[in-house]
Design a protein that fits this description.
mainly alpha; single chain; transcription; two-stranded antiparallel sheet; 2 strands; WH_DNA-bd_sf; Arc Repressor Mutant, subunit A; DNA-binding; TF_FadR/GntR_C
Length: 242
């Protein structure tokens, strides 16, 4: 994949020391989130360095930063694995989202600008049900819509926290597409987005926040969390995928 394929976001918190190290960080994180690098899999570092057309040194800069953020588990540079997904982390992400995103939505209802409303409306036009049949396109559109809402909170600390939370939670959404929950019809979930948008545009902050809580509690992320919590401890995820 060339440089145009890399997902580059300005709010990444990186201390990598070279531009190639930053590129390695971003590309590896993208692959982890999307599931291209499977949970628990071992990194073939020299193959990755060849793919990314860089030496092993900047690749290891990216690996070190990803390990510090718990995307990777590193015993030594020879034994680096993608962090596993587990019910405990899924539950924690869901709980934090329930705390932060309703409040960001409430603030957005009182602070949104006309330009921000236009962004929200355009994002809503791209929405698709987040199910296996729509896949990555739906996940990307879903994230863009929710971000268009919470960015309008104008609370930069809250925005950064939610950006990081969504990075971690998106990984579970991709996992969820392979679980039974990923094939469920989600018409109500889709409609709630439009209702949230209407409440924010009309300035009904408390009602919007309440609906976001309901939306999160019945989201694909919540369904994935419940599925993982109900799995026998020794059962691998691929045995329950449809």
């Amino acid at each position: 994949m060339g440089a145009k394929g890399w997902i580059i976001r300005q709010n990444d918190s990186m201390d990598v020391t070279s531009s190639k190290g930053a590129l390695a960080y971003r590309e590896l994180r993208r692959r982890i989130i999307s599931g291209e690098l499977a949970p628990g899999s071992r990194l073939s570092q020299y193959e990755l360095a060849d793919e990314l057309q860089m030496s092993i040194t900047p690749l290891r800069e990216g690996i070190r930063q990803l390990a510090s953020e718990d995307w990777l588990k590193m015993d030594t540079y020879r034994d680096v694995r993608v962090a596993s997904v587990d019910a405990g982390e899924a539950r924690e992400l869901l709980e934090v989202r329930l705390l932060l995103e309703p409040e960001a939505t409430r603030l957005a209802a009182g602070r949104r600008t006309g330009a921000e409303v236009s962004v929200m409306e355009k994002a809503a036009e791209q929405l698709l049900p987040v199910t296996r049949s729509w896949g990555e396109e739906a996940i990307s559109a879903h994230r863009a819509f929710h971000r268009s809402i919470y960015v309008a909170s104008h609370n930069h600390v809250l925005i950064r926290m939610l950006d990081g939370l969504w990075d971690k939670a998106d990984r579970y959404r991709y996992v969820g597409l392979q679980l039974p929950a990923g094939n469920e019809p989600r018409g109500l979930d889709l409609q709630q987005h439009y209702d949230i948008l209407r409440l924010v545009v009309e300035g009904h902050g408390e009602e919007a926040a309440d609906l976001v809580r309901t939306h999160i509690a019945h989201s694909l992320g919540a369904a994935v969390t419940q599925t993982l919590e109900n799995l026998p401890q020794a059962q691998p995820l691929d045995e329950v995928s449809a």
